[in-house]
Amino acid sequence: MSSHLILFNKPFRVLSQFSAEGEKSTLADYIDAADFYPAGRLDFDSEGLLLLTNQGALQHIIASPDFKLPKTYWVQVEGDITDTALAQLQQGVTLKDGLTKPAKAERINEPKVWPREPAVRYRENIPTSWLSLQIHEGKNRQVRRMTAAVGFPTLRLIRYAIGPYNLDNTPVGKWHYISPSESLQNEVMQFEAHRKSKTPPSHRRRPSDKSQHRSPGKKVSHGEGVARRPTRSQSTSRSRRK
């Protein structure tokens, strides 16, 4: 194994974690790879692409909106989505936690995907439609809240792509190792170089500075130094340290 990345097609109602939580299915039911952890999250009731890595820098870059890896979703909504609603999604939608950034949104034909278990509830008198939605953010349950805000609740949500990676040729419930793209490798190198270049602020005192600031000729043993310190209120000094 030479890759630091795993691509997994997560089924519906699987937690994006390895640790058990009640009777819910987890990644441990599908993936047997030591020291790999999800780079970002995919909700329990969402399906599709989940990337995992064993490298901290990769995990940060994939999960963080700061690095602007686009995430593309295939969304089945209730109702025949309108051009007005698509335009709203493209311009940005006001949610409780603020305005979303402009997104790429377009109507698509129903994609050829695996059947969901259980299936989406079918209503004879209410049509459904599909759209492709690409965002650069990571707000909690953002896609579902966006489509609801424009009047078309989400019925089924599949993440199709993250940056250059997509679900093509990966059946549901399956995973495989992949190689980081050149652009992703460059991001990691820059991130690591920036982290290594950081130095402690100059005003921070080094451990040896205490002894260097003592007046010459006044060296005392540890016991004498403690005895000559003025009495302080312990509760005050401790509260400042917290």
Automatic annotation (TrEMBL):
PROSITE patterns: PSI_RSU. The keyword Transmembrane does not apply. Residues 4-149 form the Pseudouridine synthase RsuA/RluA-like domain. It is an enzyme of class 5 (isomerase). It comes from the Bacteria. InterPro entries: PsdUridine_s_RsuA/RluB/E/F_cat, PsdUridine_synth_cat_dom_sf, PsdUridine_synth_RsuA/RluA, PsdUridine_synth_RsuA/RluB/E/F, PsdUridine_synth_RsuA/RluB_CS, RsuA_PseudoU_synthase, TruA/RsuA/RluB/E/F_N. The keyword Ion transport does not apply. Residues 195-220 have a biased composition (Basic residues). Belongs to the pseudouridine synthase RsuA family. This is Pseudouridine synthase. It comes from Marinomonas hwangdonensis. The lineage of its organism: Bacteria, Pseudomonadati, Pseudomonadota, Gammaproteobacteria, Oceanospirillales.
